[in-house]
Amino acid sequence: MIDSDNRKPILLVALGGNAMIKKGQEGTAVQQRDNLKVTVRQIARLSQTHRIIITHGNGPQVGNLLLQQECCDAVPKMPLEILVAQTQGQIGYMIESCLDSELMAQNLNASPLVSLISYVVVDEHDPAFKTPTKPIGPVYTKTQAEAASWPFHKTAKGYRRVTFSPKPVTIVEKHEIKQLIDMDFIVICCGGGGIPVIREGRAFSGIEAVIDKDLASARLAVEVGADLFVIATDVKGVATNFGQKNQKILRTLTLADARKHMRAGHFPEGSMKPKVEAAMQFVGIPGKRAVIAFLEEIEQAVAGKAGTEFVA
Ligand code: ADP
Ligand code: MG
User: InterPro entries given for it (predicted)?
Assistant: First the structure.
């Protein structure tokens, strides 16, 4: 953790893919900007009272880039980590421009904005490198999957390419991010969980993998000494028996209960489980708050009036 004189509490908001492309939407640029307004409007107001870090997912956007490269053989295909870097640029730009417009529209004190291409160190000996588990990109038919050179999994929707999903070890730019928020910059970073890199001496090199954005965000929240970590998604909070008649959205969740519900299988891999794990890691530190909340209720979540608040 790095010390600072800026006394505004540090709020890290992790935006889910749905902040830009809702389920069932095509994901045009107009739709993405429109969707973003809902969250960005709230973050603009929160920036008056908090130092702000925004992290974000990139699932649909990186999926589209993968599909675009397959539609054309005239230019060389780029490896996954370069596509992740591309999405950090495109999404960072969209969040910046939307947030800037909102700050002006609401006549608020406008902090400067910066989007950082962010690297996240992973451990090359992480057991996650033994088995690819994370589905990425478009859905394929069995024939297409068999003809391709990637590992594939059969999912509910069809065949999808899978890649490794190692744990984030440390955010390479943590000191720079901390300095920027202390100067009252609003920082957008760790998009898509960050570009996974392994350390070779003093150098870093990109590696074929995808880091979960909620786990990377929790790591960053710890490393910059954030006070409050909000994971914003498309449900009102963490539920037990999700999607069933006896579903119950929890207003508070103790670490002991979170562990119990996790063991009982209430939180699936790849969606709610990494969010719960991320929140648990953060509130494990004394004095920290973590809330999993609806994208439209970020301000209420910060005020302690919405979402699922984790309790140590
Ligand atoms: P994001 O893009 O925000 O990371 P995800 O799709 O990865 O969103 O995770 C959020 C989804 O998790 C919700 O839309 C919901 O369908 C699903 N989900 C699975 N289990 C639960 C649960 N126990 N409580 C709430 N949501 C759950
Ligand atoms: Mg997710």
Answer: AceGlu_kinase-like_sf, Asp/Glu/Uridylate_kinase, Carb_kinase
**Integer Cα distance of 120 and 214 in angstroms:** 13
User: Which candidate, 174, 299, 173, 170, places its Cα nearest to that of 226?
Assistant: 174
Give 144 or 117, the one with higher predicted confidence: 117
Quote the CA–CA distance of 275 and 67 in Å, as a whole number: 27
Q: For the chain, percent helix, then strand, then coil, each to nearest 5? A: 40, 25, 40
Q: For 16-37, write each residue's pLDDT tens digit.
A: 988 999 888 989 999 999 999 9
275 is catalytic: yes
- If you take atom 19 of ligand 1, which residue's CA is the nearest one? 272
Helices (H), the chain: 29-46, 59-70, 80-105, 142-147, 174-182, 213-223, 255-263, 272-283, 298-302
Percent of the chain with pLDDT over 70: 98
**Catalytic site includes residue 134:** yes
Query: Look-up: residue for tokens 């429109």?
Result: 34
Would you place residue 7 in the very low, low, confident or very high pLDDT band (cuts 50, 70, 90)? confident
The structural domains of the chain, ordered by start, are 10-117+173-193+209-311 (3.40.1160.10)
pLDDT of residue 14: 98
User: Any idea how long the chain is?
Assistant: 312
CB-defined site of ligand 1, < 6 Å: 16-18, 57, 233-235, 238-239, 242, 266-268, 271-272
pLDDT score recorded for residue 6: 74
Looking at the CA of 240, name the nearest ligand: 1
Counting ligands in written order, the one closest to the CA of 276 is 1
